[in-house]
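=== RUN LOG ===
request id: a7f3
mode: sequence -> structure
chains: 1
length: 276
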Amino acid sequence: MYDTYGSTSVRDIIRRTFGGRVSAALVAIAALFLAVNSFTVIGAGERGVVFSKFGGVQSGVRGEGLQLKIPFIQSIIPIDVKIHKSETDASASSKDLQTVDSRIALNYHIDPSNAWRIYQEVGMSYEQRLIDPLVQESVKATSAQFTAEELITRRAEVSIQIKEMLTARLIPRHVIVDEFNIVDFNFSPVFNEAIEDKQRAEQEALKAQRDLERIKIEAEQKITAAQAEAESQRLQRETITDSLLQLRAIEKWDGRLPQVAGAGVPFIDLKSLESQ
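=== RESULT ===
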């Protein structure tokens, strides 16, 4: 369109000038948007699971770092494969039908190469939907093999059996057990009181046994001392003779003669003899 002077309309000039710039800007924005949605970053200790709108979860995983994807068609879901800690409350019955409440601490991690299977089979709520139920099942199955008292006295053995059973059940589900601990065992108040009474009785029996052993030792010591004293006296009686008595009398004499003598012996003044 031209005006009365044969020149291009001002409106057409503005349209052509700014319209071209807007189109270029829209193309640039669209390209940037496509570029941003064509990449994703997988963090340290994670694996990427590829989900396609047309094919669902794809086999295999993406490693750490920058990963390429088809924008608007594919999405990459990060799965944490680092070690996690889970604490689960489990209630079970012992072999002697005592109720046992326990708290279980489990360290585990997802098998990195099979993280896509976890997402496909269980989803992101694998701890609540998979791990916790299997922990409770393993605790119940193992507790039923021991009496309540054995669960206390053989706690290490019980822990090993639960861990082995839980490991065997989780490995096919692509979860690896790193560490397992029984944090606590809780029994009914009646059973706890019975255990305390038994321990008290055992301690009293042990004390009585020790006292009896002490009394026996003291009696043996007295008998031994009496026997030694009797033997000493016997030996003394055997060794005492007339000659020994005379010798001991001589050892006690002070060297002075008797002053008088009698009993049929003529009277002699011993002092006068001493003066001569």
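=== NOTES ===
The chain is about 50% helix and 20% strand.
The mean pLDDT is 80.
=== END ===
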